Amino acid sequence: MERYTADFTDMNENGAGIARIDGMVIFVPGVLPGERAEFEITEHKKNYAIGKCLSIICKSEHRIESLCPNEASCGGCSLGWMDFGEENRIKANTVRAALRRAGLGKTRVEETVTTGERYGYRNKMTVRFDPLAQTFGYSRPLTSEILPFGGCPLCPAVFSQIVTFLNASPEITRPLAPESLAVRYAPDGVTVTLYAGAFTDRDAGALRNALKERFPEIVHLLVNAPGHAENAELSERIGGLDMHYSSEAFRQVNTPAFERLLEIVKEEAGKADFRTAADLYCGSGVIGLTLAKTYPRTKIYGIEINPDAVEDAKKNASRNGIGNIRFFCGDAASFRKKFPSSAELVTVDPPRAGLSASMRRELLALNPKRVIYVSCNPQTLARDLAELTQNGYAIRRVTPVNMFPATKHVETVCCLRR
Questions:
Q1: Where are the domains of the chain?
Q2: Secondary structure of residue 358 in the 3-state scheme
Q3: Count of alpha carbons within 13 Å of 302, Cβ hemisphere only?
Q4: Per-residue model confidence as pLDDT tens for the chain (418 residues)
Q5: For residue 328, what is the enclosing H or E element?
Q6: What's the start-to-end Cα distance of the chain, in Å?
Q7: CA distances for 123 relative to 42, 137, 142, 251, angstroms
Q8: Where are the beta strands (DSSP E) in 157-211?
Q9: CA-CA distance, 222 to 229, in Å (whole number)?
Q10: Are the folds of 3-63 and 124-234 the same?
C-alpha cells in the first residue's frame, strides 16, 4: 500500500485524527491533533478514507503513555494516550462539532465537567468467554474476536484480578459452559455473575467456594443459565439518595461523575418554578427522585419501558420516603397518556439512538416550558436539538460531562426553554 505523510489538525468523535490530502478527509486512529504522522490508507469511502498509522513523525505535547496493556487492539481506552486536559478539550469539541453539523454552530458549549479521576472509575466490567483459549477477555472492536486479557485500568484492580484468576484456572468454570462474565462493584462489596450454558448446584458451589476463598470482597456470586436465573440487590448512596438496584438493572458506570451530572440537572431545574415534571426513560428513578427530593412541593412522573427498573424505582421512592413521585411502565413515547398535559418541565435520558421521531412529536405536542436533555451521543443529541429549536425552543446551556474518562464517549446535559 502507498504511504502518506500529513499534518493532523483535529479529531473526530471516535478518537481518530483528521488530516486532508488533495481535499480528501482522512481519519487515522491513534493520531493526535497537532501531530505529523506517516500512514497508509486501508479503506476508501465516498467522501473520506480511513488510514492506519505507521509512525508518528512529530509528536503532540499532549501525547502520553497509555496505561492500558491492550490499548492498540482493545479500543476501549481510545483516548488513553493523550493527557487528561486535552481529552476534556477534545470531548467539548466533539459536542461543538456535532452541533455545528446540525446547523447549531452558534451554540455555546461549556468546558467539560470532570471529577478529576481518570482510572478505576467503572463499577461494572463485562468480558466474554473464548472457547478455544478457555479464557475470558474483551472483544476486538467490530469483531467477534476475543483478545487475551491483560487487565483493565478503567476498573477497580480487583476486577482484573478476578478475571485473571479464572483464566488461570479454567477447570473451575468449564463444567458450567461459560459464555460471559460480569463483575459489579457497590459500596457493600463485589458481585460476580457468570452467564453459562449449563447449571448444577455442585458446579456452581465449587465456583462460589473458589472465588470467595480467594476474594473476600465478593458478596454475591451468581450463575445465570438456561432455566436458572439468579439475581441480587446492589445498593449505593448517590446524590443524597439511598438507591438499590437489581444486579441486572442498568446503572451508570461512573457514580461520582453521575453525581456531578445530577447537580447540573438540579441547578437547571431550580432556575424557574415548576409544579409538575415528567422524567422520561427514567430507569431506576435516580433523576426523577433527585428532583422530587429537592423540590418536595412538585409532582414528578417517571416512565420506563423496563418493568424491573420500574419496580426498583418504586421501591427506591418508598425507601427514601419520597411521596411526590409516581412511576409507570411503558414506552416513553406514550407518556402523554400517563402524565398530565400541564407538565412544565420534562427531563429525558434516552439511549444512544436518541429520541425517536414519535417521541419528538409527543414532546412538541406536550409543549413544556423547559426540557433538560441528558445524552450519551452528541450526534443524536444534535439531531434532536435541531428539531426542537425549529419548533419554538431555545438552547440555554450545553455542558459536557466526562462520565467515561480515557474513552471516546462523553455525556452531555442540554437545557432548553420554550
A1: 3-63, 100-116+254-417, 124-234
A2: helix
A3: 29
A4: 788 999 999 998 888 999 999 889 999 998 999 999 999 999 988 889 999 999 999 999 999 998 887 766 777 888 999 999 999 999 999 999 999 999 999 999 999 999 999 999 999 999 999 999 999 999 987 788 999 999 999 999 999 999 999 999 999 999 999 999 999 999 999 999 999 999 999 999 999 999 999 999 999 999 999 999 999 999 999 989 999 999 998 899 999 999 999 999 999 999 999 999 999 999 999 999 999 999 999 999 999 999 989 999 999 999 999 999 999 998 887 777 777 667 899 999 999 999 999 999 999 999 999 999 999 999 999 999 999 999 999 999 999 999 999 999 999 999 999 9
A5: strand 325-329
A6: 54
A7: 36, 17, 24, 9
A8: 178-186, 189-196
A9: 8
A10: yes
Find the radius of gyration of the CA atoms of the chain. Answer: 23
* Run of H or E including 57: strand 48-58
What residues are paired with 68 via a beta bridge?
none
Cβ count near 274 (within 10 Å):
22
Q: Residue for cell digits 443459565?
A: 225
Q: Are strands 3-7 and 36-44 parallel, antiparallel or unpaired?
A: antiparallel
Question: Do 352 and 375 form a contact (C-beta atoms < 8 A)?
Answer: no
Please state the φ and ψ torsions of residue 401, each to the nearest 5 degrees: -125, 125
The kind and range of the H/E element at 336 are none
Correct CATH for 3-63 of 2.40.50.140, 1.10.287.110, 3.10.20.30, 3.90.550.10: 2.40.50.140
Q: CA–CA separation, 290 vs 413, rounded Å?
A: 15
CA dist., res. 126 & res. 128, Å (int): 7
Model pTM?
A: 0.93
Q: Is the sign of the CA dihedral 328, 329, 335, 337 positive or negative?
A: negative
Q: Which secondary structure element, helix H or strand E, spans residue 355, and what is its range?
A: none
Active site residues: 376
* Positive/negative CA dihedral, 150, 75, 93, 61: positive
The total number of residues shown for the chain amounts to 418
CATH number of 100-116+254-417: 3.40.50.150
Tell me the one-letter amino acid at 57: I
Question: Going by CATH, does the domain composed of 124-234 fall within 2.40.40.20?
Answer: no
Q: Which three cell numbers stand for residue 128?
A: 466474554
Task: Let me know: does 113 contact 400? Beta carbons within 8 Å.
Answer: yes
